[in-house]
Design goal:
single chain; mainly alpha; 2 strands; about 50% helix
């Protein structure tokens, strides 16, 4: 399993929004600059996040993006699925949604190992939220940076 750049950038940008003032829209250019992401690529990601209802936009002067849902409710799985991120650890567990399933499933000795591992990963992504990420990892210098304050890293 590999989370692509699109999935990683989506999560970084959403964490940036989660750390921002929830009453003030954040311009996409600011998020892109803060996170060192191409604004054009971030627009593509935000289009999908907006379509899924995770973020909303405000047009005009002072416009930008806001998190549309409570960060406690936004799971990593929701984020990855919103940006079409595949989260199966092997192709054989990815085809389980297919009507035919994995062609080796009936006789593959390790199929259930991959299936169980996938279930554990999906369970983690279902319970890890933006709020938990912010609570666990947001240090004051990073929060100050996205709010435009001076900070130093020692």
């Amino acid at each position: 399993m590999r989370i692509t750049t699109k999935g990683r950038y989506a999560l970084r940008a959403l964490t940036n929004l989660a750390l921002s003032d929830p009453s003030r829209p954040v311009p996409i250019k600011k998020i892109a600059a803060d996170e060192d992401i191409s604004p054009e690529f971030l627009e593509q990601i935000f289009f999908k996040l907006k379509k899924s209802g995770i973020i909303s936009s405000v047009r005009g002067p002072g416009g930008g993006f806001l998190i549309a849902r409570d960060p406690k409710e936004v799971t990593l799985r929701m984020v990855f699925e919103a940006v079409d991120e595949g989260i199966a650890i092997t192709p054989c567990t990815d085809c389980s949604d297919d009507d035919e399933g994995c062609p080796r499933q009936d006789f593959c000795i390790v199929y259930h190992v991959w299936k169980e591992a996938s279930e554990h990963i999906l369970s983690f992504f279902d319970t890890m939220t933006l709020q938990k990420i912010v609570d666990r990892n947001a240090d004051k210098s990073y929060a100050a940076m996205i709010e435009g304050e001076e900070f130093s890293v020692n």
